[in-house]
Amino acid sequence: MWNCKDIEKLKRDLPLLGYLKRFNWTARRVGSGQEYVGLCLLHTETRPSFHVNAAKNLFYCHGCGYGGDLIRFVQVYFDLSFRDSVAHLVKEWTQTASDDDLLGDTVAFYQYQLNRHQEALDYLNQRGLRDPELYRQLGLGYAPGCSLREHLLSVCGHRFDRLAALGLINQQGRDSFFRRIMFPCLDQGRIVNLYGRSIGQPPPHRFLPHAKGGLVAWETLRGAPSVILVEGLFDLAVLWQAGFRNTTSALGCHLTADQFTQLSDDPGRQVFIAFDSDANAAGQRAASRLALQLHKAGLQARILRLPDGHDPNSFFVSGASATDFTRCLEEAR
């Protein structure tokens, strides 16, 4: 039987806001604190009335009148008793903790491999990244392939079925990531996905079959009055290296609902969109669509125009300086 201290720990380990995202709940930030509002998951409505206070870990819906903590939400949503709701959450908490440990061990293994494979370091150098401290800050690692499974099973003691369920190995039992620079995707400090950039054969980009998480390093940027949004990890890395630490990435040019909510939670924020200036203009079209969405949300959005064929990474690799990029920011339309 769980006592009051155990139940409070359960609610801390399973934050209400994060739990609601499992149901694809999207919300916008209101006020200056950690208040969010969205459509209620407990009744049908067309105007958002479901409020969540992330700091207090509580919810209240002005439409249906239900309110309370995480356990109360589970009670109402699944029509369970208090005891059954706690049992339901304990089961989910156990699985979440197990998955967190597995992904943590995986990231640690990849990070250990980075300096042991010259091909990975050579690739990072080719992309203009030469600062080991930057590698550490971004959590970069390397997946050589054919070795993760054995490490996680024999050294760490994880179960084969969990490796397969998370997508770390394929149906044949082989490592899913092979010859890839690896990057942990975080959401509220938790590793929720892995991104791998191939240094050899295509496809160039690969994620685990889960949501890719929030904007990169958002917890350190959310208070910034202006933000530079880029497509890729290497775009972000080269800008951080050049001193533009207010840069974030959605790991792609199409933001998820949660990422858009993060970006637009402060109506006074200025967003510089620095997507690829590729030949097919796909990056610039995506930038225009996003700028319009941000404008409708009340933000000031500006689109950078880099030289044709360049993204921020290739721009710096080609010899551009921080001054050159600052000029692009000043000329953003």
Task: Name the descriptors.
333 residues, alpha+beta, DNA Primase, Chain A, DNA primase DNAg catalytic core, N-terminal domain, Dna Topoisomerase Vi A Subunit, Chain: A, domain 2, 3 domains, 5-stranded antiparallel β-sheet, 4-stranded antiparallel β-sheet, 14 helices, 13 strands, flat
Could you walk me through the main structural features you see in this protein, from its secondary elements to its overall organization?
The chain has 333 residues and is of the alpha+beta class. α3 crosses α4. It contains 14 helices and 13 strands. The chain has three domains: 76 residues, Zinc finger, CHC2-typedomain (DNA Primase, Chain A); 111 residues, DNA primase DNAg catalytic core, N-terminal domain (Alpha-Beta Complex); 113 residues, Dna Topoisomerase Vi A Subunit, Chain: A, domain 2 (3-Layer(aba) Sandwich), CATH 3.40.1360. It has a five-stranded antiparallel β-sheet, covered by helices on one side. It has a four-stranded antiparallel β-sheet with strand order 6-7-8-9, covered by helices on one side. Strands 11-10-12-13 form a four-stranded parallel β-sheet, with helices on both faces. The longest helix has 33 residues. It is flat, with a radius of gyration of 22 Å. The mean pLDDT is 91.
Architecture blueprint of SSEs:
Blueprint: H1 4-13, H2 16-21, E1 28-30, E2 35-38, E3 50-53, E4 58-61, E5 67-68, H3 70-78, H4 82-114, H5 118-126, H6 132-138, E6 141-143, H7 148-155, H8 160-166, E7 180-187, E8 190-198, E9 205-207, H9 218-221, E10 226-230, H10 233-241, E11 247-249, H11 257-263, E12 270-274, H12 282-296, E13 300-303, H13 312-317, H14 322-330
Parallel strand pairs: 10-11, 10-12, 12-13
Antiparallel strand pairs: 1-2, 2-3, 3-4, 4-5, 6-7, 7-8, 8-9
Helix pairs in contact: 3-4
